[in-house]
Amino acid sequence: MKILAAIFAGFxxxxxxxxQTDKNHAYAETLDHVDIYTVQKDDxxxxxxxxxxxxxxxxxxxxxxxxxxxxxxxxxxxxKSVSKEEKELLARLVHAEAKGExxxxxxxxxxxxxxxxxxxxxxxxxxxxxxxxxxxxxxxNGAINEPADKSSKKAVMExxxxxxxxxxxxxxxxxDETSSTWLRAQTVTEVIGNHRFAK
Length: 199
Fold this sequence. Notes:
Elements: H1 2-15, E1 18-22, E2 25-29, E3 35-38, H2 45-52, H3 56-62, E4 75-78, H4 84-97, H5 103-118, H6 126-130, H7 137-141, H8 150-162, E5 171-173, H9 181-184, E6 188-192, E7 195-198
Antiparallel strand pairs: 1-2, 3-4, 5-7, 6-7
Helix pairs in contact: 2-8, 4-5, 4-8, 5-8
């Protein structure tokens, strides 16, 4: 019996390396499923989000932080990020939809897709949102298959870092290129370059 107890205790020590307490609750994650980041000098949550493609808000939530203050040496759990393939697909869409638009417009296009993933009116995966029938012209005309430029890839990483901090836009359109009265009737949240963003 003592051997079983010793084996169980050893398993618990190896499995639960990171434990955080919060009043009456304890949170434990296995190291096999968690990425832990050690904060460096001059880091911000936004910088970390950009580097790893994760939302600042999600980093705060998973680490039970009430403010954006972080300190060198502090260890932060990083939430799961979207896959490399999803980032690449989203960057190709941004490249095709926002070619020639300001950088802020590229970030906003990526945020529209991320907002749709969180909105129950739309599919809950990036790929499914992008390939939903008749939603994005680059899917219909094949431009989605063109490689993304560096600016579009960076815009995707910034959008992932800012996810949840935007204006909840789930549509965008160029008023000079659409005759959709339904789209034009949606509440415009911002105008960037030639695009109007709406919800």
